[in-house]
């Protein structure tokens, strides 16, 4: 009996100028299975998805869907044939509701236009319920009020209205907390049992290995391995992806950086002190961050962590309380104002921060022209050189040249660019919201190493992350935000897991009833 194959590529090839993004890739994806597509940043995963889903035309090779060769002229044509994609950065109608956004997808998929708002909400509600998402999303909520995780779930609901044969999920869990990842995997499990071929791209390998049956491993545009997860366990996959030795973070940093900050020395003056600040989505928040500390902010997605950071840097209004920067009360009016006071925030959503139509070099220089450099006129070439060296070396950003558009960088490489750009401003306080979102495992170690080194050199760092592992790995002190308030605080060295689990678990129960 011949095995059923949902999607098969043969010699799939794609070049961007001199860059070979796909070098003759042969892959078979089976129905009713979850296949993980793995590879470091820039390996060619997104390009593979783009070619299979009509977003890019391959230069060579063939794509077969259920045994029939296809030449998709557009994503719409691919969707009509049964190929759906959930993208890393969902594009949605921001002012419309969840229901309207799902409805638009239904219309695009050939559904009938529905004019009544209650009917639109009921249809979207049915769609969400069939995916087990009825409790996670309210069809009447406007998109702009949703967290990154909730938007991902809406995007998945939209992709599924066409009842695809093949579903590509490109980094769907990059910004999801543990709870939301479970929700997502619940949806994936349902799709698998309906016979959908699911292709999952994710750098969170431990999550991936919980759900995938098969792996396809890519490196530099080529497939280097393909088989069951038993044949290629995590460590083997990591080796195949990079061929780069996996360095322990601690080895990359001076030993002092791994200790709690400056225990024996006098306690330095806080860089930032929040006294009972309130704003939309949070209230009565007290927090002190001193030089050399890495404060990890944990909590469920939607708990209010990003909102607190936005309130501090002036991206959203504060309703009350006081912000002190180096002991002086300040009301920061905008992120630019925050930079002038030595506070740089790196957003979770890179769409807002990358100048896509400008060159990589422009993006790098943009920060060096920032307020702290104004006095020196032109950005100092040495500083540019240092930054570029960091990008190319420690963060291994793959780019054809510095003059290429930032849009030509893979998603993970854009994230690295933003990190390096923020660091180059030499802030007193660096606020990182999901700093390794979409970044491969080797680079994640490098970024963590750099964060520790910066703290060891005296920078204060505030890390917001949905990954408890990341917080436990990095932070010298951990605060947990729950329902917009700081719920609990623990110092590294104590066993924080029971405390964190209690705070986060309690939050789930409360949120469910409110
Ligand atoms: N529009 C483009 N123009 C030029 N080069 C591009 C373009 N899109 C992608 N590339 C290059 O093709 C290669 C593969 O990129 P791709 O986005 O497919 O990688 P990826 O494996 O999805 O990475 P990530 O994990 O960071 O998302 C990279 O070297 C990238 O810089």
From TrEMBL:
Keywords: ATP-binding, Nucleotide-binding, Repeat, Transport. PROSITE patterns: ABC_TRANSPORTER_1, ABC_TRANSPORTER_2. Residues 7-245, 262-508 form the ABC transporter domain. SMART domains: AAA. InterPro entries: AAA+_ATPase (IPR003593), ABC_carbohydrate_import_ATPase (IPR050107), ABC_transporter-like_ATP-bd (IPR003439), ABC_transporter-like_CS (IPR017871), P-loop_NTPase (IPR027417). The keyword ATP-binding applies. One of its GO terms (molecular function) is ATP binding. It comes from the Bacteria. Gene3D superfamilies: P-loop containing nucleotide triphosphate hydrolases (3.40.50.300). Pfam families: ABC_tran. This is ABC transporter related protein. Coiled coil: none annotated.
């Amino acid at each position: 009996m011949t095995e059923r194959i949902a999607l098969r590529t043969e010699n799939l090839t794609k070049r961007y100028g001199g860059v070979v993004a796909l070098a003759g890739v042969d892959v078979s994806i089976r129905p009713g299975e979850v296949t993980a597509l793995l590879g470091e940043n820039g390996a060619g995963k997104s390009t593979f998805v783009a070619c299979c889903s009509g977003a890019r035309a391959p230069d060579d090779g063939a794509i077969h869907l259920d045994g029939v060769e296809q030449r998709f002229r557009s994503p719409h044509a691919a969707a009509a044939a049964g190929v759906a994609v959930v993208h890393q950065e969902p594009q949605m109608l921001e002012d419309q509701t969840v229901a309207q956004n799902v409805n638009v997808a239904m219309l695009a998929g050939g559904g009938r236009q529905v004019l009544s708002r209650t009917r639109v909400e009921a249809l979207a509600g049915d769609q969400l319920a069939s995916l087990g998402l009825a409790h996670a999303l309210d069809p009447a909520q406007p998109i702009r009020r949703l967290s990154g995780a909730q938007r991902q779930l809406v995007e998945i609901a939209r992709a599924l209205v066409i009842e695809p044969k093949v579903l590509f999920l490109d980094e769907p869990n990059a910004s999801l907390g543990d709870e939301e990842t479970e929700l997502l995997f619940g949806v994936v499990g349902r799709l698998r049992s309906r016979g959908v071929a699911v292709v999952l791209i994710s750098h969170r390998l431990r999550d991936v290995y919980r759900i995938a049956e098969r792996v396809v491993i890519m490196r530099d545009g080529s497939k280097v391995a393909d088989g069951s997860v038993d044949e290629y366990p995590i460590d083997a996959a990591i080796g195949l992806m990079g061929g780069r030795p996996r360095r322990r973070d601690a080895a990359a940093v001076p030993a002092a950086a791994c200790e709690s900050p400056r225990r024996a020395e006098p306690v330095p003056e806080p860089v930032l002190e929040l006294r009972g600040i309130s704003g939309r989505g949070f209230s009565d928040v007290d927090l002190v961050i001193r030089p050399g500390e890495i404060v990890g902010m944990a909590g469920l997605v939607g708990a209010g962590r990003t909102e607190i950071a936005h309130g501090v840097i002036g991206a959203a209004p504060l309703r009350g309380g006081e912000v002190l920067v180096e002991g002086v009360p300040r009301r920061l009016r905008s992120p630019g104002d925050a930079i002038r006071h030595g506070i740089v925030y790196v957003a979770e959503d890179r769409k807002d921060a990358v100048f896509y139509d400008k060159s990589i070099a422009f993006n790098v220089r943009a920060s060096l022209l920032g307020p702290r450099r104004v006095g020196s006129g032109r950005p100092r070439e040495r500083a540019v050189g240092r930054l570029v060296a960091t990008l190319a070396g420690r963060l291994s950003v793959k780019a054809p040249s510095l003059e290429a558009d930032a849009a030509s960088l893979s998603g993970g490489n854009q994230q690295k660019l933003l990190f390096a750009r923020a660091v180059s401003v030499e802030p007193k306080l660096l606020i990182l919201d999901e700093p390794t979102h979409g970044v491969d495992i080797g680079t994640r170690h490098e970024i963590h190493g750099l964060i520790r080194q910066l703290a060891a050199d005296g920078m204060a760092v505030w890390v917001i992350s949905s990954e408890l592992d990341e917080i436990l790995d990095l932070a010298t002190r951990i605060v947990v935000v729950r329902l917009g308030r700081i719920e609990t605080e623990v110092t590294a060295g104590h066993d924080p897991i029971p405390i964190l689990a209690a705070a986060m678990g309690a939050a789930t129960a409360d949120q469910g009833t409110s």
